[in-house]
Amino acid sequence: MTSDTSYLKADEMLLNMGPQHPSTHGVLRVVIRTDGEIIRHATPHIGYLHRCKEKIAETMTYPQYIPYTDRMDYLAAMSNNFAFCWAVEKLGGIATTERAEYIRVIVNELQRIASHLVAFGTYGLDMGAFTPFLYSFRERESIIDIFERLCGARLTYSYGRIGGLMRDLDEKSIDMTRRFVDDFDTKWDEYNDLLSNNEIFIKRTANVGVLPADVAIAYGCTGPMLRGSGVKHDLRKDDPYSIYDRFEFDVPVGEGKMGTVGDCWDRYWVRMAEMKESSRIIRQALDALPEGPYLNQKVGRIIKPAYGEIYFRAENPRGELGFYIVSVGEKKPYRCSVRAPSFCNLSVLTEMSHDTLIADMVAIIGSIDIVLGEVDR
Amino acid sequence: MTGALSNEPLWYQLLIAVIKASVLMGALLGVTGWLVLAERKIIAWLQGRPGPNRAGPMGLFQPVADVLKLLTKEESIPPFVNKILFIAAPAIITITAMVSYAIIPWGPNPVWGAISNLNLGVLLFLALSSLGVYSIVLAGWSSNSKYAVLGGLRATAQMISYELSLSMALLAAVMMAGTLNFQLIVEAQRPFWFILLQPLGFFIFFVSAIAESRRTPFDLPEAENELVAGFHTEYSAMKFALFFLGEYMGVILLSGIMATVYLGGYQGPILPGPVWMILKIAVLFFVFVWIRATYPRFRYDHLMQIGWKWLIPLAVLNLIITAVLCLTFPNLVPNAIH
Amino acid sequence: MAQNILFYLAAVMAVATTSMVVITRNAVYAVLYLIMSLFAVALVFLSLNAPFLALVEIIVYAGAIMVLFLFVVMMLNLQGQRGDEATKRPTRRQMIVPGALALLLLILIVVSLSAGTPAATNAALSDPKLLGELLFTKHYLGVKLSGIILLIGTIGGLHIGRGGSIPSTMEKPIDDVTH
Predict the structure, then answer these.
(1) Residue-level pLDDT at A294
(2) Among A99, B97, C83, C155, which has the highest number of CB atoms less than 10 A from its own CB?
(3) Number of structural domains chain A divides into
(4) CATH at residue A90
């Protein structure tokens, strides 16, 4: 930090939150100018986890790059895998199998629940409530058990394959998934009793960090951030990809139930409601799951898409994850750019945290639900 | 001031005081470690996980391991701190908490029931609890670090505010008992425990007690998600342990005061007085832990609002109601001042 | 006997620490010395058989008022010693008036002490019940007046403390509602 503090006004103090701070969710560093407890200005500093993901893509064949996508949004590695696979499939005109698409949807929605569970748990933790965190991790554990059965890994799965999947979803996994989905609804009510409807929690989050819809759109916020501000925008509905148009589900948006539309509680609630919708989708997908191969065997290890470019976007737990891939007809992409939802969502932090309290700052960062691995890539 | 012994020689009075104090202090210091374990076990149980279970059967030796670790750790005093106050701060909170135990009655015996059967016991308790604030203020200031200062400021404002409602709630009970002596307050509860006559007072005292001991949902001074560790950010090893000890002793002390003033103290059938006292303290301690496992943390301004806009007016109201009650129903509380 | 020893020890401590309040140049230390001095005075009360006053002194002065002092001083010190005026050693000319005043006080104390010690300790000083009765009967007006002064102080404080922007997420303080 610069030692020149002359630009500070009389009663202001420069506070460095992070990169090692318990509630910046990773290695985010926020430099805040405070007047006592009141934040006058906050500047997020990023880049502590930058690993040149996009540049690395240029030296990798398409299938080789799949494990790298895991490590961007490591709380939703499955969704990243699939988004990349879908992008390459679209670029190369590669067909997948029916069963693979269904399994992808099931796993994608399970991943969404797992990711939102982490968001819910850590948000409780940010608010000083310790118990929701452990409750949510208990449920996340069962999802991870399913994933472990599918691919052997518990965090970075690399489960997607171009043209299908790495392994099939066996009977036992289907059973586990069904049991989880049935169980989850009661657990979901428990969460609401514990945290969502808690008076203190509502006081901490309602009317805090209000993000108006126009600002959210101007900053390119997506996912629960945008929907929390009352904009009904979900790529699964508005730009359907894969087989999402076959399922029936609602898109929850912030309604200002506890305060203003677009406050922290709305964003939090959108995530909670989305978990419920995801379990609805999983149920439908499980019922309609067709038999057949899980991988298009015609797809080889070397993929050479024709000369061209593609921008594919998928609705990740954190928002719109976009892959922009340019192919010059070689086995490696010429350029691969990633539109990370966390990065765009984080950019609005300065706007939201103006004239709030330090405690609100924690509430706001938590409600953005960033993953620094994705912000920095 | 120990009335029953005032005719005995000074050395005898001192000897008895020293014996009583050593027994109690030994018990307290020994028990605190296991209370921490109890808290961790209870929270673990509430959160559906096993809790500490490695050291000894069911983790029973965990406190020994913790203390050994804290004792053998390197004491780090950062170069930028104000050394004298940095060292003094953790001592103050432990000392004030320990001294306060002198006035808690454990039995009806005027000599052995309490370390000091002080006539102005309630005042001594208030005086010592108000001094505990210095520990945190000085820790925050002498650490010379921003998070510590913010934590110190929060703690000061919080503790001063909640001390008011705490004292006023206590005052209403004192009014009913007609004495400032804790033992006599217990005796005044022979017909009814004061929790029945003072439900509002008990509630106010309980909420203020949580705030005074800086525990969830009032743990803002050490809010780890906002201020890293608040006022004890720079502390390590035994000095940190002293803050911890002070906090736990404060919790037990406040539970003890609540048990004494509202739950009939050492009174109870069959079992001897001290056992009842310990049981009552344990129940209150459990509630403290339970609340910690359930609630999120308040925000600074909400905390102040609750303190000043709700608790203090309520406490004043309670005081007025109590005064009216004491005057209109003299038979209900025979000891009250008329 | 023991009480006499206690009295003189406490008295010496009170004088010493109070002098340190004036002498020390660190504002925080000054406040801490003042707290110690208040403790010493409380001890003096205790040695004079007035435990009630002693404890009230600690609760009110050491426990509440001085914490606020420390609070304010801490905030100032955080900004670094910018107010150099306060920490500069006073010049000889600046010391004339306070010195004269101190001398006058000393003379007054000596004169009044030599005129005979005041009446022996009052029973009301140790018994809160008696003290309360006295306050609310004989000294009724004084209690009322001090209450009014406190009220004025509160209103004044509220008036001075008002102002500055309030975070949007915070509820408006009471006094802003009327404006």
Answers:
(1) 83
(2) B97
(3) 1
(4) 1.10.645.10
Say whether C162 sits in a helix, a strand or coil.
coil
The predicted model gives A334-339 an average pLDDT of 88
- Hey, what are A205's tokens? 């989050």
B220-231: average pLDDT: 66
A301 vs B6, higher pLDDT: A301
* pLDDT for res B333: 65
Question: For chains B and C, what is the number of CB pairs under 8 angstroms?
Answer: 67
Task: Say which of B123, B137, B156 has its CB closest to residue C59.
Answer: B123
Domain boundaries, chain B: 76-328
Token pair belonging to C7: 């009295």
- Whether residue C128 lies within 8 A of chain B, CB to CB, comes out as yes
Range among A283-287, B103-107, C58-62 with highest mean pLDDT value: A283-287
- The domain spans of chain C are 1-83, 127-162
Using pLDDT thresholds of 50, 70 and 90, give the confidence band for residue C34. Answer: confident
Q: Is the model's pLDDT at B218 over the cut of 50?
A: yes
Q: Which of A44-48, A319-323, B219-223 has the highest mean pLDDT?
A: A319-323
* d(C-alpha C52, C-alpha A149), whole Å: 73
Helix/strand/coil for C6:
helix
- Residue A232 included in any domain: yes
Please check whether residue A325 lies inside any domain of the structure.
yes
Q: Rounded mean pLDDT of chain C? A: 74
Cβ–Cβ of A129/B226 closer than 8 Å? no
Domain assignment present for residue A295? The answer is: yes
| Binary contact (C62, B130; C-beta < 8 A) | yes
**What is the domain range of residue A329?**
53-376
ipTM: 0.73
Q: CATH number of the domain at C1-83, please? A: 1.20.120.1200
pTM here?
A: 0.79
Give the chain C residue nearest A208 (alpha carbons).
C169
- pLDDT-derived band at B21 (thresholds 50, 70, 90) equals confident
**A310 bridge partner residues:** A325
Q: Which chain B residue has its CA at the smallest distance from A208's CA?
A: B299
- Contact criterion met (CB < 8 Å) for B130 and C59: yes
Task: Write a three-state SS string for chain B.
Answer: CCHHHCCCCHHHHHHHHHHHHHHHHHHHHHHHHHHHHHHHHHHHHHCCCCCCCCCCHHHCCHHHHHHHHHHHCCCCCCCCCCHHHHHHHHHHHHHHHHHHHHHCCCCCCCCCCCCCCCCCHHHHHHHHHHHHHHHHHHHHHHHCCHHHHHHHHHHHHHHHHHHHHHHHHHHHHHHHHCCCCHHHHHHCCCCCCHHHHCHHHHHHHHHHHHHHCCCCCCCHHHCHHHHCCHHHCCCCHHHHHHHHHHHHHHHHHHHHHHHHHHCCCCCCCCCCHHHHHHHHHHHHHHHHHHHHHHCCCCCHHHHHHHHHHHHHHHHHHHHHHHHHHHHHCCCCCCCCCC
